[in-house]
Write a structure and sequence with these properties.
Shape: globular
Number of strands: 7
Order of helices and strands: EHEHEHEHEHEHHHE
Number of domains: 1
CATH superfamily: NAD(P)-binding Rossmann-like Domain
Number of helices: 8
Helix content: 40-55%
Oligomer: single chain
Length: 218
């Protein structure tokens, strides 16, 4: 029987790299991202189902859940960096912080809620991508880090409430992605890990299916 995964933020970076790993292992994939053109190219490459849209849109979340009535793996990878250049908390625009919470915390929870029946039926797994900014006091990263800390605790509680599932909150470490380049500059980002290498470690985690918990990949 073929496994099915739903991956958000799948048009680039870690989401794309993981989609390639899973597709290579024969998984069926439902992929989403905001950029329709890039997502359609990825889906054509991998033979996946592409459903472009914004994960903060409840109607889009419902479309994703309907597209995966049988689901073994949900990967909440889509996230937003927030205001750039990264501002100190003393001057963080509160409306921008509310939007960041909606994208990085509320949207993953909404998708978990929408797909739980399918995940429970399959005794499946949830991967929530977090960050070392969730715990480290990095100047300028307070807004983003606070949302990732919230996602980690959400994951922690979910793992206790859904013992038949596997729930992993995964810190992938610094990767050479557009998001990191937006935060620290392209030159520094280029020295970070290749997302494909990190995705290989994440694929090994999914395959090994260890107990629920926090996982650092670098």
């Amino acid at each position: 029987m073929t496994n099915t995964a739903l991956i958000t933020g799948a048009s680039r970076g870690l989401g794309l790299a993981l989609a390639r790993s899973l597709a290579g292992a024969g998984w069926d994939l439902v992929l989403t991202a905001r950029g329709a053109a890039d997502l359609e190219r990825v889906a054509a490459e991998l033979g996946a189902t592409a459903i472009p849209g914004d994960v903060t849109d409840p109607a889009h979340v419902e479309r994703l859940a309907r597209a995966a009535p049988e689901l073994d793996l949900l990967v909440n990878n889509a996230s937003d960096l927030g205001v750039t250049p990264l501002p100190p908390l003393a001057g963080y625009p509160l409306e921008a912080f509310r939007v960041l919470l909606e994208t990085n915390v509320t949207a993953p929870l909404a998708l978990i809620q929408a797909t739980l029946p399918a995940l429970r039926a399959a005794r499946g797994a949830v991967v929530n991508i977090t960050s070392d900014a969730a715990t480290g006091p990095y100047e300028g990263w307070g807004g983003y880090g606070a949302t990732k800390a919230a996602l980690e605790q959400l994951s922690n509680v979910l793992s206790a409430e859904e013992p038949e599932l596997r729930v992993w909150w995964v810190d992938p470490g610094e990767m050479n992605t557009r998001m990191l380049a937006d935060a620290v500059g392209a030159e520094e980002a280029a020295a970070a890990a290749d997302p494909a290498k990190v995705a290989a470690a994440l694929y090994d985690l999914v395959s090994a299916r260890p107990a629920s918990g926090k996982v650092s990949l670098q």
